Amino acid sequence: MVAIKTENLSKTYKKGLKKKVESLKNLNLEVNKGEIFGFIGANGAGKSTTIKILMGLLNPTSGNAWLWGKKVSAPEARIGVGYLAEHPRFYNYLNPLELLTLIGKLNGADRVSVKRRAYELLSLVLLEDAAKRPIKTFSKGMVQRTGIAAVLMNDPELVILDEPMSGLDPLGRHLVSSIIRDLQEKGKTVFFSTHIIPDIETLCDKVGILVRGELKYTGSIQDALYPPGGTFEMTFRVTGSALNHPEIKDKFALLWQKEALYKIELEEEDIPDAIGWIGEKKGTVVSLERKKRSLEELFLNLTTSKERA
Question: Is pTM beyond 0.70 here?
Fold first, then answer.
């Protein structure tokens, strides 16, 4: 089942009397139920614009978008959806317990279950000791964690987070990462934007890279990090007369050497020959793995190629 779908989604803003700025250009995107989807882009790439359209806060210039098969222009499309804005704002005179209680009551839950759920979530985001402190006294990270609790108050099936790691210290980032993984284990769908690339690599099933309003890459994390046709890295050990043999440097693309250990880069079709040569020299293969491409490398390549164009 498709949780989020966009079709040729575009948004153009007017800047001054004549100039127009294309914030989003023909975005075609699908997020399936149960996935964690990471949306990467530099500041101003169009991530927040996309999310605001999905939440009905902006109207697209052209194209369509759906949540659970319902057009985002229909209010019922957002039933069962939890949303956290990039810069959440709450009533400063409320405390977290009052805020969560208000959200629960607005959704028709009874008083007892609302209070129980509120304390459960405040404990989850490590704010139980600040449950009755005014939000206006909170740090940015505490406000962000309050927002996470507010998003989860009504147990949404789809969670959309705009820069959820913003303002969080390492402990806070670890906490939010754990919450996102737990949501997936419960069968929920999570869509979040970020420019913190390591979070995408460790959390997501799929990734979309947005460059100046255009989706330049979308696919699984596995394919992003280990593209088809990529090279392999082999580490092997040789001793005796084969050690420091000049043929090693002539025959292989040597990455590094440390005493009797060598690490080489090679194509998949060259692996059998390499293993045969190592065997002839009475050596042993220590490891063989597909060479990993960093997501940051892919992102920078796509971004800089767009800038050059």
Answer: yes
User: Strand 261-266 relative to strand 253-258: parallel, antiparallel, unpaired?
Assistant: antiparallel
The DSSP code for 55 is: T
Answer yes or no: do 178 and 236 share one domain. no
pLDDT in single tens digits along all 309 residues of the chain: 999 999 999 999 887 777 888 899 999 999 999 999 999 988 888 999 999 999 999 999 999 999 999 999 999 999 999 999 998 999 889 999 999 999 998 888 788 899 999 999 999 999 999 999 999 999 999 999 999 999 999 999 999 999 998 888 889 999 999 999 999 999 999 999 988 888 888 899 999 999 999 999 999 988 888 877 778 999 999 877 666 666 777 788 888 888 888 899 998 889 999 999 888 888 899 999 888 778 888 888 888 765 544
Same domain, yes or no: 213 and 236: no
CA triple 239-243-246, angle to 5 deg: 155
Number of domains in the chain: 2
Whether 267 is covered by a domain: the verdict is yes
Rounded to whole angstroms, the Cα distance separating 187 from 39 reads: 20
CB count within 10 Å of CB 176 equals 21
Range of the domain at 127: 2-221
86, 39, 62, 85: which is closest to 211 by C-alpha?
Answer: 39
Q: How far is CA 287 from the centre of its chain?
A: 30
